[in-house]
């Protein structure tokens, strides 16, 4: 492995489950598209391939984002926070939607005094992408 | 407690430690300033006061952001993700800096082929704000 990459992976503080929070931000618009977790392997593959990989907590396996849907996230920049325990990914979102529900961003519901309000419209129909 | 707020708090999926990831984004610029965690109490106080509260994992106590530094975060909008386990806070950052190191954003270091590169300049001197 590249020495710079290895040094970086050793700098990252993974939590007790071996995970670090990763925030995906659209590099062109600044929109927050999603937040997930990475383990060391997912972070290494992301930096080596330029395509974002996460660790799926629900499926307990490496998750190449977009493998099923085609909505791959191309890495444009990676930042780490002051405590080395949070990552900010600047990405280009293929298919213009990050969320498995079909919305562009996973944060499509806003808290209001009347309850949760849905913002915007779905970009794709999840039944067509993932099957019924 | 307000019924809408109570319903929302019951919708939120806190993790095994009673925490949820919260991302603070500058409402005016879209910059990501920091990421921390909230417990139910911190989320309730944030929504009731309009000022962001987190749960400090290192100090194991409620953390009213800006209590020491004056760099309070005024809540402008709160979004929840598709899985109900991640929050996006749109905020106005008093003092124009969120990071305890004096930088505007906690994500002031970028991974590059030459290693971590510091982006930008500190906004304040932490020694003057927090003491030596």
List keywords for this structure.
homodimer, 132 residues, alpha+beta, Ubiquitin-like (UB roll), 4-stranded mixed beta sheet, 8 strands, 18% helix, globular
Describe this structure in words.
Two copies of one chain form a homodimer. By secondary structure, chain A is α+β, with helices and mostly antiparallel strands. Chain A has a single domain (3-130), classed as Ubiquitin-like (UB roll), CATH 3.10.20. Helices cover 18% and strands 35% of the residues of chain A. Chain A has three helices and eight strands, in the order αββαββββββα. The first copy, chain A, has helices at residues 3-11, 40-49, 126-130, and strands at residues 20-26, 32-38, 53-56, 61-64, 73-80, 86-93, 109-112, 115-118. In chain A, strands 2-1-6-5 form a four-stranded mixed beta sheet, covered by helices on one side. A two-stranded antiparallel ribbon of chain A has the order 3-4. In chain A, a hairpin with a 2-residue loop joins strand 7 and strand 8. Chain A is globular, with a radius of gyration of 16 Å. Chain A starts with a helix and ends with a helix. Strand 7 (109-112) of chain A pairs antiparallel with strand 5 (73-80) of chain B, so a sheet runs across the interface.
Task: Report the end-to-end length of chain A measured between terminal Cα atoms.
Answer: 41 Å
Count of distinct structural domains of chain A: 1
State the share of residues found in helices of chain A, binned by percent: 10-25%
Write down the overall mean pLDDT of chain A.
95
